[in-house]
Specification:
Layout (H helix, E strand, L loop, with lengths): L1 E6 L4 E6 L10 H14 L8 H31 L2 H24 L12 H34 L5 H136 L3 H109 L4 H125 L1 H61 L4 E4 L2 E5 L6 H9 L4 E2 L5 H8 L5 E6 L8 E2 L24 E4 L8 E4 L6 E7 L3
Parallel strand pairs: 6-10
Antiparallel strand pairs: 1-2, 3-4, 4-10, 5-10, 6-7, 6-8, 8-9
Length: about 725
């Protein structure tokens, strides 16, 4: 018999050849080899076959026993009966042997994985077999009673034996009919077997394809998992680098704050020293004033004149110093404002990156949970498959035991048929399970591809964030260096102010010493006053002359006072102009920012200038300028001509005589009179050249007339103030 078995653990199919009717003289080694093949091939059957197999075996034993008794009875009656009966019994026995030989030589081999018979049909067949078993048992009982009766009354009941022979002849015909039916059933079973074999091969091919696809999907899944792990590692590394950059940024921020605090302290100290300096200056001036009041009126007027001149010069010097300090403070203020804006921008960027990292972290936690759930599901499925495999192993062992107990014949064919049907259903179930697993693996593969793309996106975002943090770090480092430079400058200024302060203290002490000396001298003068009174009459003659000189000096003092007041008013006017210039600078800066956009504008004497990067016709160039609130350049001075030549480009300017040939006018309608910077023998183009350009820019006289449809660079001018 040929049996086809499916091994679940190795995904293989075995074909086992086993004949239950082998000659008893078979070699023991060959038989043990066949037994081992059968043992290895029967590992796919189920526990549910145990009861049916035992029932079939029991039924087969009873059937063989009944058949043996019937044969003995037939032999007994045919041997002791008439020659016709002996001939009939011999023919029947020969046909039975032929039937047995045909059954032995047929070797009907059914492949377990390809036969498909429904459960209900098998139950019907089992019921039919039970009915036949009951019939055979009844017939056995009847034959046994008949045998005993014939043994006792053999000589008396010869007619009964003849009747029995007739009955046996009819039974022989019935057996012949049964034999023919069995032949037909065998042919039908062979046809079903071939069909099931083809179905098995088709299912096995599909099963192998599904297994290969499952293996490929599993490989792709593992590759995606490894790629995801690599991306996760890169993500973690970038997160660590970002944390390090954040720490460096915080350290630089704290260092900048410390430098800012030191800068403010030095600024306060400088202000305090400036206040002390002013106080000392005032004390020095007061002492000088007291000192000067002690001299004579003439010397006092002369000294007042000199002091006023010195005060004017000192005020001018202080004014210049204050202007420089104001410009320095404004520069520091602008730098601090820029640093504050940059820090605010960095803070906002870091806040957004922190939110982005939190979102990425939550997404990764969710993905981790999902992956953990999938891992648990796969573990459960693996455990379930392992349990099924163990059950199949046990069922295989049970089938091996059942196989050793199976007999030959029709019951064996029916048992194999039943087993093959179940295995076919099992293969179909396995095929459906593998198709479902393939679909699930395809879904997991697609999900992993999406996760890989998401991780790559997160990786790119983190790389961009890292670059931004590196840029912020470099900016903060530059700001730190700038603040350190400012700190050093302030320290130097503090030292300088301290030196000036010490110098003023020394001057104050010197003035106090001079004041004491003047007081002493005053006392001496009082002592000499008596002597001077005696000389009064002598000096009276020269008093008038001195009065005239006094009047002249007073008038000169008044003139100096007027000049001082004028200088003070001039100083106030300059301070007002300074404030206006400061406001104008702020306005100009904002206007330049809003006006420039993406273009590179240059500032020169109250106007903004833009030089094009491409060439165009004169009218198109002017349209470009007017759409931006400007116009082609109008050159009103030698300085502006030199400024325009320094761009080193042949460019259109705002002069044309297209309205009237020979009458050149600027684009604002004014005539081109003076200054004029035409090249030698230019303009000379007549009506063919009506637009002006800068051509020979290496010399002062660089204007040339050219056709307006020619392509040149152009220069735009935006007048801010005059």
């Amino acid at each position: 018999m040929e049996m086809v078995l499916f091994n679940e653990s190795s995904k293989s199919i075995y074909v086992v050849n086993e004949s239950p009717y082998k000659d008893s003289t078979m070699d023991a080694t060959s038989r043990s080899g066949e037994d081992s093949k059968v043992t290895s091939a029967l590992q796919g059957a189920g526990k549910s076959k145990k009861s049916s197999c035992k029932c079939a075996a029991s039924f087969l034993v009873v059937q063989i026993l009944l058949l043996s008794i019937g044969l003995v009875t037939l032999w007994f009656f045919f041997i002791r009966g008439q020659p016709e009966s002996e001939m009939d019994a011999g023919i029947l026995k020969g046909k039975y042997k032929n039937l047995t030989s045909e059954e032995q030589n047929s070797s009907l081999s059914l492949r377990l994985s390809d036969l498909a018979i429904e459960k209900q049909k098998l139950e019907t067949t089992n019921n039919n077999l039970m009915t036949e078993k009951q019939q055979f048992e009844n017939e056995l009982n009847r034959l046994t009673d008949l045998l005993k009766t014939h043994q006792i009354n053999f000589s008396k009941e010869r007619e009964d034996l003849e009747t029995t022979v007739t009955n046996l002849t009819q039974e022989r015909h019935q057996l012949q009919t049964t034999f023919n039916s069995l032949i037909k059933d065998r042919d039908q079973l062979k046809t079903s077997y071939n069909n099931l074999t083809k179905a098995q091969e088709w299912i096995h091919t599909n099963y192998n394809n599904v297994v290969r696809e499952q293996t490929q999907l599993q490989t792709s899944n593992n590759n995606l998992v490894r790629a995801r792990d690599r991306l996760q590692t890169n993500y973690n590394n970038l997160a660590n680098e970002k944390t390090q950059l954040q720490t460096s940024n915080n350290n630089l921020t704290r260092a900048r704050d410390r430098l800012q605090t030191n800068y403010n302290n030095l600024a306060n100290e400088r202000t305090q020293l400036q206040t002390n300096y002013n106080n000392l200056v005032k004390e020095r001036d007061q002492l000088r004033t007291n000192y000067n009041t002690l001299v004579t009126e003439k010397n006092q007027l002369q000294t007042s004149n000199n002091n006023q001149t010195l005060d004017i010069y000192q005020l001018q010097t202080n004014y210049n110093n204050l202007v420089k300090e104001r410009d320095q403070l404004r520069t520091n203020y602008n730098n601090l404002a820029t640093g504050k804006t940059q820090l605010q921008t960095n803070y906002n960027n870091l806040a957004r990156e922190r939110d982005q990292l939190r979102t990425n972290y939550n997404n990764l936690v969710t993905e981790k949970t999902q992956l953990q759930t999938r891992n648990n599901n796969l573990t459960t499925a693996r455990d379930q498959l392992q349990t099924n495999y163990n059950n199949l192993v046990k069922e295989r062992d049970q089938l091996r035991t059942n196989y050793n107990n199976l007999a030959t014949g029709k019951t064996q064919l029916q048992t194999n048929y039943n087993n093959l049907a179940r295995e076919r259903d099992q293969l179909r179930t396995n095929y459906n399970n593998l198709a479902t697993g393939k679909t699930q693996l395809q879904t997991n593969y697609n999900n992993l591809v999406k996760e890989r793309d998401q991780l790559r996106t997160n990786y790119n975002n983190l790389a961009t964030g890292k670059t931004q943090l590196q840029t912020n770090y470099n900016n903060l480092a530059r700001e730190r260096d700038q603040l350190r430079t400012n700190y050093n400058n302030l320290a130097t200024g503090k030292t300088q102010l301290q030196t000036n302060y010490n110098t003023l203290v020394k001057e104050r002490d010197q003035l106090r010493t001079n004041y004491t000396s003047v007081n002493t001298r005053n006392q001496q003068v009082e002592q000499q006053q008596v002597a001077l009174t005696r000389q009064k009459n002598i000096l009276q003659a020269s008093a008038n002359q001195l009065s005239l000189e006094k009047s002249l000096l007073q008038r000169r003092a008044e003139v100096l006072t007027t000049e001082k007041n004028n200088l003070q008013r001039t100083l106030q006017d300059k301070e007002t102009n300074l404030r206006d210039l400061t406001q104008l600078y702020t306005t100009l800066k904002s206007t330049l920012t809003s006006f420039g956009g993406q273009l590179k504008w240059s500032f020169f004497k109250g106007s903004l200038y833009y030089v094009s990067l491409s060439k165009s016709q004169w009218q198109q160039s002017r349209n470009f300028c007017t759409t931006r609130g400007a116009d082609l350049i109008i050159i009103n001075s030698k300085e502006e001509q030199v400024f325009a030549n320094q761009f080193k480009k042949s460019a259109w300017i705002g002069a044309t005589d297209s309205a009237r040939d020979g009458t050149w006018k600027w684009v604002d309608g004014t005539s081109v009179i003076q200054p004029r910077y035409w090249m030698l023998r230019e303009p000379n183009g007549g009506r063919g050249e009506n637009c002006a350009e800068l051509k020979s820019y290496n010399s002062l006289n660089s204007w040339n007339d050219e056709g307006c449809h020619s392509s040149r660079y152009w220069i735009c001018e935006k007048t801010l103030f005059t």
